[in-house]
Structure formats: C-alpha cells, structure tokens
Amino acid sequence: MKTELDALATALYVKTDDLLKASPHLAPWRPAVGITPRLTDAELVTVAMMQAMLGFTSEARWLRYARSHLRHLFPYLPKQPGYNKRLRKGSALLRRVTRLLATDTSVWSDDVWIVDSTPVECGRSRETVKRSGLAGWAEYGYCASHSRFFWGLRLHLVCTLHGLPVAFALTGAKADERETLLDLLAAEPGLVAARPAQTLIGDKNYFGRGFEHELAEQDIRLLRPARKGELERLGASLFKPLRQIIESVNETFKGQLDLEQHRGRTPGGVVARVMQCILAGGVVARVMQCILALTAAIWHNDHTGQPVLRSLTAYDH
Q1: CA neighbor of 199 nearest in space, from 309, 110, 99
Q2: Could you count the other beta carbons within 10 Å of the beta carbon of residue 28?
C-alpha cells in the first residue's frame, strides 16, 4: 500500500464509511425527510483531514484548491458556508473517528503516557480581545516555555510515547493542568481501568500530594522532575529524552498542522462529552481536524509498516 496522501485519504474514507454503515447513529442528526447531502459524512471526515494535513487554515482557499486538484476524489464540494456548518455539526463524528483510528493501532495499549499543555493563541490586540466571541472562555495566560503572555486557550494532551493522542481537552489559558488531567481521566474511566499500573510522565506543574494520591488511587504512577526544594525523584534520568517527545508532538501540531492558525472566533455549541471543556466552534473544529490528521497518519503508518509512526512527510504535499 502506498503512503501518499491519496492512499491515506482512501483508507480513511473506507474506514469511516464502514463505521457509519455499522453504526449509523454516530452520524450527525438530520431529519428523516429532506434533501440528502451530496457530500457524505465519510467524505466530510476525509476532506477535513486533508485540509489539516495540507496546512490550509482558510476554508475558502482550501475549497478552491480542492476543486482544482482533488476532483478525482471528491466530485462535489460545498461552498464555504455549507462546509463550515457541516464541520461544526460533525465535530462529534471527527472525535469518534479519531478514537476508532487510535484504538486500531498497535501502540494504543502502550503502558506509558505523556501529558502536557500548550497555548492556543486566539488574539493579540486589545480590540480583538474585546470583540471576540471567545471572551469568557479564552483568557490571558503565561507560557513558560516561550516566556510570554498570550490571550487564548490551552490544549491539554495525553499521548503515547509514539505521539498517538489518547485524550485531550481545550480550556482557558489559566486552567489548572492537574485539575484538567483529573477531569480527563474521570470523563473516560475505561481508559485507566483497561490499563493497570499505567505510567504517566509530566513536567513540574503536575505536582501535589493530593494530586498524586488521586492518581495512585487509579493505579497510575506519576513520573515528573523534582521541584525546587524537593529530593531527586525516581526516574529523573529518563525525563529529558521522554519529555522531548511531547514537545515534539506539540511542534507537529503547530509547525506542520498549523494549529495556532485556527481562525476560530466564536464557540458554536457544546460537544456532548462529559467533564471535558470542549466547545464545538471554529477553534474546536480546527483542533479536531489537527488531532484527526495526526491520528490518521499514525494509524496508516502503523498499518503500512513505516519505521516512524508520527512522520507526516509522505502526506503533507
């Protein structure tokens, strides 16, 4: 099987189409009587993945490109407003397909996870902050890695050592990373229940006796660097190489999948996912596209026997 973008798109379409045929209730709701969409839900998922993979942050530019270069894959493409509405309504489907692909890889059962958060900037000028529909969700925060303040959100990500996304949440920039992680684990108790003695690697922000006790009750062993004044912790020699993995995953989202160029300005409704702070607006649709694209690439690389699962080089052109 080829590892080019057309092969990935075809494999993702077939996988999604089979999922929707077996479980039609997973598709976005629409009236029983009405006009059937000319772009199927499986095609929508595939188009969304390809947009993120090819780095198009403007939906209008993406659709112009797709009409000129991808007619052999998609005979019909909606106009920009229709595509935008379909993406917003299909956020839950993107999430379900992402999870299906993740569980269909050989690295889904890894017994080591890495957790971190990264800024998702949503505006810089004061006027943008005052006018944005994200006000009240987005807020001012500080990024220690880049020594800068920003206005926006944070993407909290739990992934495997191969960079496969396991769980994520979007929160305000000031949200406590520890509380968000506990909420993520509480939202999907099956993730932890199926993995006894799971190891979790985080940075110095994931600290606290009560926090570590809650993780220990879920049979999760936390590894993190020692904070100032603490004795050296077990496994300290492993932190630098392993912590670099999550930084590399974040850079894949921002450098190759253009996560920060999401152009989202308004939240458009709440995605039904208990305990997760995710709104189905422009920002979340873009984040879901990026996570779908990375997961699809890892899934396809895994099934085609590629040596580096997180490599996007074969698909980003």
Answers
A1: 110
A2: 14
What is the residue whose two structure tokens read 């670099």? 244
Residue with tokens 């080829």: 2
Q: How many CA atoms lie within 13 A of 176 on its CB side?
A: 8
The DSSP string of 185-252 is HHH-HHHHHTSTTEEEE--TTS--HHHHHHHHHTTEEEE-PPPTTSPPPTTHHHHHHHHHHHHHHHHI
Candidates 3.30.420.10, 3.30.390.50, 3.40.50.1010, 3.40.50.150; CATH matching 109-277: 3.30.420.10
Where do the domains of the chain lie? 109-277
Q: How far apart are CA 289 and CA 196, in angstroms?
A: 31
Helices 282-303, 5-22: crossing angle, 10 deg rounding: 100
* % of the chain residues with pLDDT over 70: 87
Average of per-residue pLDDT across 3-9: 89
Element (H, E) at 63: helix 59-69
Question: Whole-angstrom Cα distance, residue 242 to residue 260?
Answer: 24
DSSP H helix total and E strand total for the chain: 11, 6
> CA–CA distance from 167 to each of 63, 95, 179, 293 (Å)?
30, 10, 14, 15
Average pLDDT over residues 34-53: 92
- Could you say which DSSP state residue 73 is in? T
**What is the distance between the alpha carbons of residues 61 and 65, in angstroms, rounded to a whole number?**
6
pLDDT at 66: 96
pLDDT in tens, 203-245: 888 999 999 999 999 999 998 888 888 877 776 676 767 767 7
User: Are residues 293 and 49 in contact, defined by beta-carbon separation less than 8 angstroms?
Assistant: yes
Tokens of 295: 């997961």
pTM value? 0.86
Please answer whether residues 206 and 172 qualify as being in contact, where contact means their C-beta atoms are separated by less than 8 angstroms: no
Q: Specify whether the CB–CB gap between 158 and 115 falls below 8 A.
A: yes
Indicate the pLDDT class of residue 285, thresholds 50, 70 and 90.
Answer: confident
